Recover the amino acids of this structure.
């Protein structure tokens, strides 16, 4: 046999032996991040176990992984921060807390330090001055920084403009005033930028605005409060996109609401006060009510809030509890890839859907990333976290979907750092 052929065969043999040895070593330490295409969550008992004792150890580890939901979540390849989270901490990454009064309660600070919250929403009753709220937000962030998640809390507020302003200052103009301006696009840009600068200066990083509900000529509760840019979906979309873009350039994320739209609601169909049904044909929903979201999404919109109204043309469940509305319409048809957030879980509009615990599970199953516990009761947030943690422990939630939601929330928090 020629010397060159012999040499080639020897080299090939050495390479094969080296690869086999490396494979055996690596197979004993499976990487939780390498889940793409994996046939099972559990380590295989027939790989990398040289002795009977090693095989038994691997088999025991496989059984352990199958029994522990938190290990299954890790096996799906969640990002590094999630690998260190307990079930309660994983549950907390989906919950926004609120509280009464000017001082954050000790229980909230404890939850933040424990890593059991994604954020906090503040209301007018929590704010006495800009200096006071800056101190409060700094205290909240400091408490959260002691927990396992490095990204800052989401600190939210409703600062639409006009009647809906929790913090003193801009934007002063209501959406309706902006829509009637001589140059409405410029007015929307100015309002969005002013809102962002005002909120950022006080420590907020998420605004629950703008409103993209398309008003009807006959009026309704949204138009009565001057919360709509107008009756033309193209105008509402253009002004909403301008507001979103200008605000987000200041470092404050925007939230378009209330998907798929409350503009058709009468003056007596406010979901804060009771159940509401938007009996609108599907063609109208898509061409009128949902249309403004296309422009806002194209402008880089970070969050969408779903309404609690029922839309019979789509589903018989409230929008924020409907996989059809959230998954098929918002994410599927419109292509939204950002963070979804519920309206307040405690509203009267969800009468008939059980206590906070039940609503939290239903909203999570529908595809809502963040659960807004905005009743100014610390117990609402705690109960929502309890419910999610129990569901995770019992393996009652879709784990890949849960992992994807946590990733979206953590990505938003990292972006706002």
């Amino acid at each position: 046999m020629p010397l060159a052929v012999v040499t080639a065969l020897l080299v090939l043999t050495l390479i094969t032996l080296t690869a086999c040895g490396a494979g055996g070593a690596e197979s004993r330490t499976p990487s939780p991040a390498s889940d793409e295409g994996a046939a099972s969550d559990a380590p295989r008992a027939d790989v990398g176990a040289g002795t009977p004792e090693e095989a038994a150890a691997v088999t025991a580890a496989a059984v352990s992984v199958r029994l522990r939901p938190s290990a299954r979540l890790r096996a799906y390849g969640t990002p590094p921060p999630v690998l260190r989270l307990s079930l309660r901490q994983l549950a907390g990454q989906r919950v926004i807390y609120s509280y009464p009064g000017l001082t954050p309660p000790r229980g909230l600070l404890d939850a933040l330090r424990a890593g059991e919250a994604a954020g906090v929403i503040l209301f007018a009753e929590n704010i006495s001055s800009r200096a006071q709220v800056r101190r409060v937000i700094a205290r909240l962030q400091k408490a959260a920084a002691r927990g396992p998640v490095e990204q800052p809390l989401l600190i939210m507020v409703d600062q639409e403009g006009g009647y809906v302003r929790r913090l003193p200052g801009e934007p002063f103009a209501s959406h309706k005033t902006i829509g009637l301006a001589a140059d409405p696009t410029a007015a929307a840009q100015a309002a969005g930028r002013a809102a962002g600068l005002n909120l950022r200066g006080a420590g907020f990083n998420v605004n629950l605005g703008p409103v993209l509900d398309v008003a009807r000529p006959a009026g309704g509760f949204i138009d009565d409060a001057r919360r709509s840019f107008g009756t033309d979906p193209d105008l509402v979309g253009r002004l909403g996109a301008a507001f979103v873009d200008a605000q987000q350039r200041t470092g404050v994320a925007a939230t378009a609401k209330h998907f798929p739209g409350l503009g058709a609601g009468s003056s007596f169909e406010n979901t804060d006060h009771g159940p509401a049904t938007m009996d609108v044909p599907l063609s109208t929903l898509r061409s009128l009510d949902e249309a403004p979201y296309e422009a806002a999404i194209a402008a880089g919109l970070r969050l969408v809030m779903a309404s609690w109204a029922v839309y019979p043309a789509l589903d018989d469940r409230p929008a924020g509890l409907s996989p059809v509305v959230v998954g098929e319409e918002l994410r599927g048809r419109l292509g939204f890839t950002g963070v979804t957030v519920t309206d307040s879980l405690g509203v009267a509009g969800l009468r008939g859907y059980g206590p906070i615990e039940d609503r939290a599970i239903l909203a999570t199953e529908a595809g809502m990333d963040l659960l807004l516990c905005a009743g100014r009761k610390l117990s609402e947030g705690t109960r929502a976290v309890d419910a999610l943690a129990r569901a995770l422990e019992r393996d009652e939630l879709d784990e890949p979907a849960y992992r994807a939601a946590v990733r979206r929330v953590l990505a938003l928090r990292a972006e706002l750092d």
The domain at 79-415 is CATH 3.20.20.300 (TIM Barrel). Confidence is low (pLDDT under 50) at residues 3-80. The two ends are 67 Å apart (CA to CA). Residues 269 and 276 are 5 Å apart (CA to CA).
